Amino acid sequence: MTIILTLLSNNIKKQIMGLIQLEDMEFFSFHGCFKEERIIGNRFLVTVSFETDTTIAEETDDLSKTVNYQNIYKLVKKEMEITSKLLENVSSRILKRIIEQFPDITNIYVKISKIHPSLGGKMDKVSITLKN
Q1: Domain residue extents for the chain
Q2: Which CATH number fits domain 17-131: 1.20.1600.10, 3.50.30.80, 3.30.300.160, 3.30.1130.10?
Q3: Between the N and C ends of the chain, which has fewer C-beta atoms within 10 Å?
């Protein structure tokens, strides 16, 4: 019985989930609750991380067998160009578009940071992270 189980487990191809992260993509956008923020704009950092099966890409070295990072970047860039009052709204739109366009991606995290926000004191950044 032990021998049969060992033989069966050796014939099963193991799925390897890769963690892919696009870290600190920088954008100048016009998000904010205050009218001035939507006129003057601000710097934002966006990090997107997700898991996907990388087994075939690892074996074939073929870009078409994995997630093309450039497509994720373009999606994020397009959403960052749409003015919003809340970072929660922008993050949600990015998350939903990734889910729609990349059904094989799982455990998606979208983090948006506003650099030096106008909150009445010195602060490096304020961030929101959404996950599916």
Answers
A1: 17-131
A2: 3.30.1130.10
A3: N
User: Residue 48 pairs with which residues in a beta bridge?
Assistant: 22, 110
Q: DSSP H helical segments within 12-131, as ranges?
A: 35-40, 55-60, 69-80, 87-101
- The whole-model pTM stands at 0.86
pLDDT bracket for residue 121 (50, 70, 90): confident
Rounded to whole angstroms, the Cα distance separating 45 from 115 reads 7
Segment 58-88, tens digit of pLDDT:
999 999 999 999 999 999 999 999 999 999 9
Structure tokens at 75: 């999606």
